[in-house]
Design brief:
mainly alpha, 10 helices, globular, single chain
Length: about 270
Protein backbone atom coordinates (compact mmCIF):
# COMPACT_ATOMS: atom_id res chain seq x y z
CA UNK A 1 0.00 0.00 0.00
CA UNK A 2 1.19 3.49 -0.75
CA UNK A 3 2.10 5.84 2.07
CA UNK A 4 -0.44 8.47 1.01
CA UNK A 5 -3.63 6.42 1.68
CA UNK A 6 -2.17 5.24 4.99
CA UNK A 7 -1.36 8.79 6.12
CA UNK A 8 -4.82 9.97 5.07
CA UNK A 9 -6.46 7.11 6.98
CA UNK A 10 -4.34 7.88 10.06
CA UNK A 11 -5.24 11.59 9.89
CA UNK A 12 -8.95 10.73 9.78
CA UNK A 13 -8.58 8.40 12.75
CA UNK A 14 -6.70 11.06 14.71
CA UNK A 15 -9.44 13.61 13.95
CA UNK A 16 -12.16 11.21 15.12
CA UNK A 17 -10.37 10.31 18.34
CA UNK A 18 -9.35 13.80 19.41
CA UNK A 19 -12.89 15.16 19.03
CA UNK A 20 -13.28 14.20 22.70
CA UNK A 21 -11.50 17.53 23.22
CA UNK A 22 -14.48 19.32 21.62
CA UNK A 23 -16.75 17.87 24.28
CA UNK A 24 -14.31 18.91 26.96
CA UNK A 25 -14.21 22.48 25.64
CA UNK A 26 -18.02 22.60 25.48
CA UNK A 27 -18.18 21.52 29.11
CA UNK A 28 -15.91 24.37 30.19
CA UNK A 29 -17.36 27.24 28.17
CA UNK A 30 -21.09 26.47 27.91
CA UNK A 31 -23.40 27.58 30.72
CA UNK A 32 -26.01 25.00 29.76
CA UNK A 33 -25.89 21.80 27.74
CA UNK A 34 -27.45 22.22 24.30
CA UNK A 35 -29.54 19.05 24.52
CA UNK A 36 -31.27 19.67 21.19
CA UNK A 37 -27.95 19.89 19.36
CA UNK A 38 -26.54 16.78 21.06
CA UNK A 39 -29.71 14.73 20.49
CA UNK A 40 -29.84 15.69 16.83
CA UNK A 41 -26.12 15.16 16.25
CA UNK A 42 -25.98 11.81 18.06
CA UNK A 43 -29.04 10.61 16.14
CA UNK A 44 -27.34 11.78 12.92
CA UNK A 45 -24.18 9.88 13.83
CA UNK A 46 -26.22 6.72 14.54
CA UNK A 47 -27.98 7.07 11.17
CA UNK A 48 -24.66 7.33 9.33
CA UNK A 49 -23.20 4.35 11.18
CA UNK A 50 -26.21 2.05 10.77
CA UNK A 51 -26.75 2.85 7.09
CA UNK A 52 -23.11 2.59 6.06
CA UNK A 53 -22.65 -0.61 8.10
CA UNK A 54 -25.61 -2.47 6.61
CA UNK A 55 -25.60 -1.07 3.07
CA UNK A 56 -21.90 -0.64 2.34
CA UNK A 57 -19.50 -2.29 4.80
CA UNK A 58 -21.46 -5.54 5.31
CA UNK A 59 -21.92 -5.91 1.55
CA UNK A 60 -18.21 -5.36 0.84
CA UNK A 61 -17.33 -7.91 3.50
CA UNK A 62 -19.72 -10.44 1.99
CA UNK A 63 -18.41 -9.88 -1.54
CA UNK A 64 -14.84 -10.44 -0.37
CA UNK A 65 -15.66 -13.58 1.62
CA UNK A 66 -17.92 -15.09 -1.06
CA UNK A 67 -15.17 -14.62 -3.63
CA UNK A 68 -12.64 -16.31 -1.35
CA UNK A 69 -14.78 -19.05 0.23
CA UNK A 70 -17.75 -19.57 -2.07
CA UNK A 71 -21.39 -18.56 -1.71
CA UNK A 72 -22.41 -20.68 1.28
CA UNK A 73 -19.24 -20.46 3.39
CA UNK A 74 -18.74 -16.80 2.45
CA UNK A 75 -22.22 -15.82 3.65
CA UNK A 76 -21.82 -17.78 6.88
CA UNK A 77 -18.40 -16.18 7.52
CA UNK A 78 -19.86 -12.69 6.93
CA UNK A 79 -22.67 -13.23 9.41
CA UNK A 80 -20.22 -14.76 11.90
CA UNK A 81 -17.90 -11.77 11.58
CA UNK A 82 -20.80 -9.34 12.01
CA UNK A 83 -22.05 -10.91 15.23
CA UNK A 84 -18.46 -11.48 16.37
CA UNK A 85 -17.93 -7.70 16.17
CA UNK A 86 -21.09 -7.15 18.21
CA UNK A 87 -19.90 -9.69 20.79
CA UNK A 88 -16.47 -8.03 21.03
CA UNK A 89 -17.76 -4.52 21.69
CA UNK A 90 -20.50 -5.94 23.96
CA UNK A 91 -17.90 -7.71 26.12
CA UNK A 92 -15.80 -4.54 26.31
CA UNK A 93 -18.89 -2.59 27.36
CA UNK A 94 -19.79 -5.21 29.98
CA UNK A 95 -16.34 -5.01 31.58
CA UNK A 96 -16.77 -1.28 32.26
CA UNK A 97 -18.57 -0.57 35.59
CA UNK A 98 -21.85 1.24 34.88
CA UNK A 99 -21.04 4.08 37.28
CA UNK A 100 -17.90 4.89 35.30
CA UNK A 101 -19.33 4.11 31.87
CA UNK A 102 -18.64 7.07 29.53
CA UNK A 103 -21.99 6.48 27.87
CA UNK A 104 -23.85 7.52 31.00
CA UNK A 105 -24.84 10.95 29.68
CA UNK A 106 -23.74 13.98 31.70
CA UNK A 107 -24.56 17.65 31.33
CA UNK A 108 -22.91 20.91 32.24
CA UNK A 109 -25.80 21.30 34.70
CA UNK A 110 -24.50 18.23 36.56
CA UNK A 111 -21.77 20.46 37.99
CA UNK A 112 -22.06 20.78 41.78
CA UNK A 113 -23.48 24.20 42.74
CA UNK A 114 -21.35 26.80 44.47
CA UNK A 115 -21.06 26.10 48.18
CA UNK A 116 -21.84 22.42 47.76
CA UNK A 117 -19.49 19.84 49.20
CA UNK A 118 -19.20 17.12 46.56
CA UNK A 119 -17.22 13.93 47.05
CA UNK A 120 -14.08 15.03 45.21
CA UNK A 121 -12.38 11.63 45.32
CA UNK A 122 -15.45 9.98 43.80
CA UNK A 123 -15.71 12.68 41.12
CA UNK A 124 -12.07 12.27 40.15
CA UNK A 125 -12.41 8.47 40.11
CA UNK A 126 -15.46 8.78 37.85
CA UNK A 127 -13.59 11.00 35.40
CA UNK A 128 -10.48 8.82 35.43
CA UNK A 129 -12.40 5.59 34.88
CA UNK A 130 -14.46 7.28 32.15
CA UNK A 131 -11.22 8.21 30.38
CA UNK A 132 -9.94 4.63 30.63
CA UNK A 133 -13.28 3.24 29.45
CA UNK A 134 -13.34 5.62 26.47
CA UNK A 135 -9.78 4.63 25.57
CA UNK A 136 -10.81 0.94 25.59
CA UNK A 137 -13.89 1.68 23.45
CA UNK A 138 -11.91 3.85 21.05
CA UNK A 139 -9.39 1.13 20.24
CA UNK A 140 -11.66 -0.95 17.93
CA UNK A 141 -13.33 2.24 16.64
CA UNK A 142 -9.92 3.50 15.53
CA UNK A 143 -9.20 0.29 13.66
CA UNK A 144 -12.63 0.48 12.01
CA UNK A 145 -12.05 4.05 10.80
CA UNK A 146 -8.52 3.31 9.62
CA UNK A 147 -9.31 0.18 7.61
CA UNK A 148 -12.41 1.77 6.08
CA UNK A 149 -10.41 4.82 4.96
CA UNK A 150 -7.71 2.66 3.37
CA UNK A 151 -10.29 0.60 1.49
CA UNK A 152 -12.48 3.58 0.46
CA UNK A 153 -11.47 7.17 1.40
CA UNK A 154 -15.04 8.51 1.02
CA UNK A 155 -16.32 5.78 3.32
CA UNK A 156 -13.54 6.56 5.80
CA UNK A 157 -14.52 10.24 5.92
CA UNK A 158 -18.16 9.37 6.65
CA UNK A 159 -17.23 6.98 9.45
CA UNK A 160 -14.67 9.41 10.92
CA UNK A 161 -17.26 12.21 11.10
CA UNK A 162 -19.86 9.89 12.67
CA UNK A 163 -17.40 8.67 15.32
CA UNK A 164 -16.17 12.23 15.95
CA UNK A 165 -19.75 13.34 16.71
CA UNK A 166 -20.20 10.32 18.98
CA UNK A 167 -17.00 11.22 20.87
CA UNK A 168 -18.17 14.75 21.83
CA UNK A 169 -20.43 13.70 24.75
CA UNK A 170 -17.70 11.30 25.87
CA UNK A 171 -15.39 14.29 26.26
CA UNK A 172 -18.00 15.92 28.49
CA UNK A 173 -18.29 12.70 30.52
CA UNK A 174 -14.57 12.80 31.34
CA UNK A 175 -13.91 16.50 31.80
CA UNK A 176 -16.82 17.52 34.06
CA UNK A 177 -16.06 15.18 37.00
CA UNK A 178 -12.29 15.66 36.74
CA UNK A 179 -12.56 19.46 36.63
CA UNK A 180 -14.87 19.64 39.62
CA UNK A 181 -12.68 17.26 41.59
CA UNK A 182 -9.42 19.09 40.86
CA UNK A 183 -10.50 22.65 39.85
CA UNK A 184 -7.88 22.25 37.11
CA UNK A 185 -9.23 22.92 33.61
CA UNK A 186 -5.96 21.96 31.96
CA UNK A 187 -5.79 18.57 33.70
CA UNK A 188 -9.42 17.78 32.85
CA UNK A 189 -8.96 18.82 29.22
CA UNK A 190 -5.74 16.84 28.77
CA UNK A 191 -7.25 13.70 30.32
CA UNK A 192 -10.30 14.01 28.06
CA UNK A 193 -8.17 14.83 25.02
CA UNK A 194 -5.74 12.03 25.78
CA UNK A 195 -8.46 9.38 26.04
CA UNK A 196 -9.14 9.99 22.35
CA UNK A 197 -5.55 9.05 21.45
CA UNK A 198 -6.54 5.40 21.84
CA UNK A 199 -8.34 5.72 18.50
CA UNK A 200 -5.23 6.38 16.34
CA UNK A 201 -3.28 4.00 18.60
CA UNK A 202 -5.78 1.25 17.81
CA UNK A 203 -5.42 2.04 14.13
CA UNK A 204 -1.62 1.85 14.14
CA UNK A 205 -1.33 -1.30 16.28
CA UNK A 206 -4.13 -3.03 14.39
CA UNK A 207 -2.65 -2.17 11.02
CA UNK A 208 0.88 -3.30 11.86
CA UNK A 209 -0.44 -6.60 13.22
CA UNK A 210 -2.89 -7.28 10.40
CA UNK A 211 -0.70 -6.22 7.45
CA UNK A 212 1.35 -9.42 7.72
CA UNK A 213 -1.74 -11.61 7.50
CA UNK A 214 -3.86 -9.51 5.14
CA UNK A 215 -5.96 -11.47 2.64
CA UNK A 216 -9.46 -11.38 1.16
CA UNK A 217 -10.68 -13.63 3.96
CA UNK A 218 -9.16 -11.51 6.75
CA UNK A 219 -10.38 -8.30 5.11
CA UNK A 220 -13.92 -9.69 4.85
CA UNK A 221 -14.03 -10.86 8.47
CA UNK A 222 -12.58 -7.59 9.80
CA UNK A 223 -15.00 -5.51 7.72
CA UNK A 224 -17.99 -7.62 8.83
CA UNK A 225 -16.83 -7.17 12.44
CA UNK A 226 -16.54 -3.40 11.90
CA UNK A 227 -20.16 -3.35 10.69
CA UNK A 228 -21.24 -5.19 13.83
CA UNK A 229 -19.26 -2.88 16.11
CA UNK A 230 -20.80 0.25 14.59
CA UNK A 231 -24.37 -1.10 14.71
CA UNK A 232 -23.87 -1.98 18.39
CA UNK A 233 -22.46 1.47 19.17
CA UNK A 234 -25.45 3.07 17.46
CA UNK A 235 -28.12 0.98 19.18
CA UNK A 236 -26.51 0.67 22.60
CA UNK A 237 -24.88 4.08 23.00
CA UNK A 238 -25.87 6.77 20.54
CA UNK A 239 -29.66 6.44 20.33
CA UNK A 240 -30.23 5.75 24.06
CA UNK A 241 -27.80 8.57 24.87
CA UNK A 242 -29.58 10.99 22.55
CA UNK A 243 -32.90 10.14 24.15
CA UNK A 244 -31.47 10.56 27.66
CA UNK A 245 -31.03 14.22 26.76
CA UNK A 246 -34.84 14.33 26.55
CA UNK A 247 -35.18 15.07 22.83
CA UNK A 248 -36.63 11.80 21.49
CA UNK A 249 -38.08 13.10 18.20
CA UNK A 250 -34.95 15.11 17.38
CA UNK A 251 -32.79 12.00 17.77
CA UNK A 252 -35.03 10.14 15.28
CA UNK A 253 -35.01 13.08 12.86
CA UNK A 254 -31.21 13.10 13.15
CA UNK A 255 -31.13 9.34 12.54
CA UNK A 256 -33.13 9.68 9.32
CA UNK A 257 -31.07 12.68 8.20
CA UNK A 258 -27.84 10.74 8.81
CA UNK A 259 -29.10 7.82 6.72
CA UNK A 260 -30.22 10.16 3.92
CA UNK A 261 -26.91 12.05 3.83
CA UNK A 262 -24.97 8.78 3.82
CA UNK A 263 -27.17 7.35 1.05
CA UNK A 264 -26.72 10.41 -1.18
CA UNK A 265 -22.97 10.55 -0.56
CA UNK A 266 -22.58 6.87 -1.56
CA UNK A 267 -24.66 7.44 -4.71
CA UNK A 268 -22.40 10.34 -5.69
CA UNK A 269 -19.37 8.03 -5.71
CA UNK A 270 -20.90 5.32 -7.91
Amino acid sequence: MADSPILFAFALTLFAGLSTGIGSALAFFAKRTNTKFLSLSMGFSAGVMIYVSMVEIFVKAKDSLVEALGVVDGNWATVGGFFGGIALIGIIDKLVPSAENPHEMRKVEDIPPAGAAPDYSKLYRTGLFSAIAIAIHNFPEGLATFLSAIQDPALGVAIAVAIAIHNIPEGIAVSIPVYYATANRKKAFLLSFGSGLAEPLGAVIGYFILQYFFSDILFGIVFASVAGIMVFISLDELLPGAQEYGEHHLSIYGLIAGMAVMAVSLLLFI
